[in-house]
Structures are given as C-alpha cells and as structure tokens.
Amino acid sequence: xxxxxxxxxxxxxxxxxxxxxxxxxxxxxxxxxxxxxxxxxxxxxxxxxxxxxxxxxxxxxxxxxxxxxxxxxxxxxxxxxxxxxxxxxxxxxxxxxxxxxxxxxxxxxxxxxxxxxxxxxxxxxxxxxxxxxxxxxxxxxxxxxxxxxxxxxxxxxxxxxxxxxxxxxxxxxxxxxxxxxxxxxxxxxxxxxxxxxxxxxxxxxxxxxxxxxxxxxxxxxxxxxxxxxxxxxxxxxxxxxxxxxxxxxxxxxxxxxxxxxxxxxxxxxxxxxxxxxxxxxxxxxxxxxxxxxxxxxxxxxxxxxxxxxxxxxxxxxxxxxxxxxxxxxxxxxxxxxxxxxxxxxxxxxxxxxxxxxxxxxxxxxxxxxxxxxxxxxxxxxxxxxxxxxxxxxxxxxxxxxxxxxxxxxxxxxxxxxxxxxxx
Length: 423
Ligand code: ATP
Ligand code: MG
Fold this sequence. Notes:
Blueprint: H1 22-38, E1 42-43, E2 49-51, H2 52-59, H3 64-69, E3 72-74, E4 80-83, H4 88-97, E5 107-116, E6 128-137, H5 142-158, E7 165-170, H6 177-190, H7 197-205, H8 216-223, H9 234-249, E8 255-256, E9 270-275, E10 284-290, H10 294-297, E11 305-311, H11 312-319, E12 330-334, H12 337-352, E13 357-359, H13 365-374, E14 379-383, H14 385-390, E15 392-397, E16 403-407, H15 411-420
Parallel strand pairs: 1-5, 7-8, 12-13, 12-14
Antiparallel strand pairs: 2-4, 3-4, 5-6, 6-11, 7-9, 9-10, 10-11, 14-15, 15-16
Helix pairs in contact: 1-5, 5-9
The protein binds adenosine-5'-triphosphate and magnesium ion (MG).
C-alpha cells in the first residue's frame, strides 16, 4: 500500500473507462448485441481466468501469446492459472465441458469482455483490453465462413464504420498444409541470413509466421516466398472460392492476401483480418478464422468451427467521441426538511415512470441551482416552505429560465406532456 495521502496510480498498460467515454462503449456493445441477435447468436459469459493448460494447449506453444504474453500465476492451491488472453480457447473449453454440441446442429455464441496480455504498452496495445467475439460451431460449409465474415462486417457497418480493409486467405488443411510448410521452410532456410533472429527460430517451429513478420528484411523475403493460395488442395481451393462467391453475393469485398497467416496456431482454411489505415502501427481491428480441430483437441466430438474477435479499444478510437453524457431530465431541489421528504417521494415515483432523475444533497437555492446547471439538467424542480404550503412545485427550464408552477398531484401528467409531448 502506498503511503497515506499519496496518489495510487493504475498499473501500466491498463485504462479507466471514464463517464465521458462510457456512452460510446455502451453504444458499441448495444449495436453489437443487436447485430448478433440478427444473426441468431446467443451470449456466453466465460470466466476471466482458466487453467493455464487451456490456453497453451489451444493457442500453441510457439505463438507470441503463449511464448511471452500470458499473465500466469500460481494460486494458493499450487495450480497454474492464467488470465484469459483471448476468448476462443475458453469458449471451446466451455462448449465441450457443457456438452453444447447437444442437441446436434449449429451453435452460435458470442462474448465480450476484458482480455489480458503482458505486452509492451503503446498506442493501441494495452495489457488489459476488451474484445467482442463470435464462434460458430458445427457447419464446415463455406456458407458458414461467409456468414461469419458478413456478421463481422455488419457490426462495423451498423457502427457506420465503412472505411475498413478486409483481407482474407486460406491456410489449407491437414492434407495440403504440411507440403506447403515444407516447401516454405526450405525456401526460408535458403535465405536464413536475411531473416530476423525471431524468424530464424521460426523456420523449423512455425515457418508460416515468418510471412507476417513486421521486420523489413523478412517482409521482402515473404513477398517472394511460395504462395499458400497456390498450394491448396482441390477441396480447400473450392472452399475458398465458394466463400468468396457468397461474400460477394452479400456485398462484402475481401482482398485475398496470401501473406495473411494470423498469429495463432489453431487455424485451418479460412483466415481473415480487418484493418484501418487510420490506426497507425497497430492497425488490426479484428481477426479470425476457421479452427476445425480445436473442439476435438479439448476432448469433444469432431466439430468444425469458425470465429473472430474485435479489439474494442482500437474500434472505439476509430469512432471518436461526440460529447459528454446526457444530463438528467429532472433535478430536484429541496429547501427545507419537509420538502426533502416530498422530493424523495416525487423523485421515487418519477424514477419508476422511467424519468432520469437527480437531486441535490443540500445547500441554499443558488448553490443548488448551480449544481443543476453543472449536471446539465433539463428541468429543476424546486420545493421550499411556500411550495409545501400550497402543495405545488416550482419547475424551472434550465436553458430558457422559464418557470412553471405545477401541483404535486399533476406533476407526472405535466411532465409527460411537457417533456414527451403526451396528452
Ligand atoms: P496484433 O497483430 O495487433 O498483435 P493479434 O493478432 O495479437 O493483434 P488477436 O489475438 O487476433 O490480435 O486479437 C484480435 C484483436 O484484438 C486485434 O485485432 C486487436 O484489435 C485486438 N488486440 C489484440 N491485442 C491487443 C492489445 N494488447 N491491446 C489492444 N487491443 C488488442
Ligand atoms: Mg498480438
């Protein structure tokens, strides 16, 4: 604990979402929920931490996340636990553990909430950040891939974000990927000296990752590397083509990028990413792909699946923020103890009616009116000794200064008419 009186600061790489910012967060979350519902998705709420094994098993030992980004700790019982760095592994664990594959058929799940990664904090990169994600379990058809990508793009569209780039690729399947991987590793080995240290290690462990390395030298080599798109087997190639045809039918335009491999190990076939040039170095807003073996890996029946995750901090930075939260419709001011009781009664009744109501907690008339002004209230409702004696309230329109005298019994009806235009 810090010394008494000393300001305690938040941990590096985490943020407070303050009242001025929460309306835009709520709007994004509400819009996403509505969009998910339109695609027949249901929400799943997964735990914030899991056994470490859930993530290392799913995400892959050679991924950036497992290699260096996990918040892992030993709990009091000596068990290794990890704060979730992403949602998919937990959703798959929950899908299998709760037997959500029964009854058979497609299962559509979405989640939202904080994720934790021990990364170097910088613009667009935090240690606690938020994701909103979807997973579709069951169908293997390209229509599932196309629908999932359409859902993702619909969320952006409903948020009026149209200026984004969608890139898609196919990473092949267990039939065709090993041969490509071999061919790629041989090519990379022949250029070993020109690769960064990290990528030199990746040649044997995970050569595909070299393709999306941000180091300049690696980028040049990746440009000339064998293309995964040209090494796909007939089935993967047909799957990819069909996905793109269906996307075109719904007006979604994706750019094929053979260098898009995504950082996680569990993908097969379709992979995609959405980025914005307005974001700077950390330009990815969302990423996803198909993962056909993960459910089985977690002990469930063979179940193909596909999903995506959107990074909310980056998305919200694209939206900007257009202003302060709305003030209350009514701000009650009591000028004597009996009036305070009346205020409690009236404010209670109005809150039940659905009005946005605030009140002062004491002071003279002038200071209380100043509080109503600071709160951006629409109307101040003033009750003092004189009003109590006459059973009326003095209602003041804050903007115009116009005042009305309204009987206590008439107040709800008067407000319905004055604020909502109801007769
Ligand atoms: P990046 O290439 O930026 O490292 P990633 O491949 O690690 O992203 P994913 O695991 O695919 O990211 O997560 C999906 C989305 O979550 C990203 O596109 C991004 O918008 C967001 N995201 C990932 N890591 C962070 C972070 N540390 N801080 C803020 N947002 C993040
Ligand atoms: Mg990352």
